[in-house]
Specification:
By secondary structure, the chain is mainly α. The chain contains eleven helices and four strands; from the N terminus they run H-H-H-E-E-H-H-H-E-E-H-H-H-H-H.
């Protein structure tokens, strides 16, 4: 070993020691260990998932956060409501309140189990209220849900015209079916008399989309939302008079379809009365 080699070895040894001390000083949580150990769900053959999928999902999430912040500002800028008439209405602010509430709910990523997917993640205004990722539109068609990389079975429908379709019906004169949303009759509108309203019930609890394990999770998360006062202003103070069990947060943070639920679609244990009130809030 010559004199030039020895200082180089010492420098390398010191760097390794410093790195080990740095790593030892960091606290490694069980969550981080689990995140590193848990493989990402990817059942697709090579070439199906776009190469830019992760950065594009991150871009869309930033856009969701921006619009949500904008909507919160619009809500706070509303003048105090004036109740008038019988039944009472929100004079001068009613329409704006409903529109802003819809915007807040549409851009609320916290409704999903992993707090990473809003309704607007697949229905962006600048994309005709449909999917905003070009590479997905050219390959997968269906969008990844809250649990990556589960994906739905259909392209994201356009909000702008889906509400104008009547319930599915047969026209005897023309000998053809008309109405409904989706060609496979996913949302006929038969029960609610509105295909669009019927369709909106599915994505929040579809394991391949937003993935909530129970419709009660939607009501629970709305009760914790920063815009809860606006929701109660529009729909009434008693909207969230529901006794949720202590484990609701844990259940609702677990994507639907998990083995822990044993196939149950209602793992949140509510009384019959509370389940009825929950259905009134989210419509299902």
């Amino acid at each position: 070993m010559n004199r030039r080699t020895l200082p180089m070895i010492l420098v390398v040894v010191l760097c390794v020691v410093a790195l080990c001390m740095s790593l030892a000083g960091r606290k490694v949580s069980a969550q981080n260990v689990t995140a590193l150990a848990a493989p990402v769900y990817n059942p697709y053959p090579p070439g199906i998932l776009p190469s830019d999928l992760n950065p594009e999902l991150a871009r869309v999430l930033r856009e969701v956060n921006f619009v949500e912040t904008e909507a919160i500002g619009q809500w706070h800028a509303l003048p105090p409501p004036t109740l008038t008439g019988n039944p009472p209405i929100l004079q001068n602010t009613g329409v704006a309140s409903v529109e802003i509430l819809g915007k807040l709910m549409n851009f609320d990523k916290n409704i999903s189990p992993n707090k990473n997917t809003a309704c607007s993640s697949c229905h962006m205004p600048y994309a005709g209220f449909s999917g905003p990722i070009p590479s997905v539109n050219l390959t997968m068609i269906a969008y990844p849900g809250s649990e990556h990389f589960r994906a739905g079975k259909r392209t994201a429908q356009r909000y702008t015209y889906s509400s104008y379709f009547p319930p599915l019906q047969y026209n005897a004169t023309q000998g053809a079916f008309f109405g409904g949303n989706f060609w496979d009759s996913r949302a006929t509108g038969y029960l609610l008399r509105s295909p669009d309203a019927e369709q909106s019930q599915f994505p929040p609890v579809d394991p391949l989309e937003m993935g909530n394990p129970d419709t009660a999770c939607i009501t629970y998360k709305l009760s914790l939302a920063v815009y809860r006062p606006l929701f109660e202003e529009v729909w009434g103070k008693g909207s969230f008079a529901i006794s949720f069990p202590a484990n609701t947060a844990s259940i609702c943070a677990t994507p639907g379809g998990a083995a822990v639920f044993g196939g149950s679609a209602t793992p949140v244990m509510l009384s019959a009365d509370d389940r009825g009130r929950q259905v009134q809030v989210d419509g299902k």
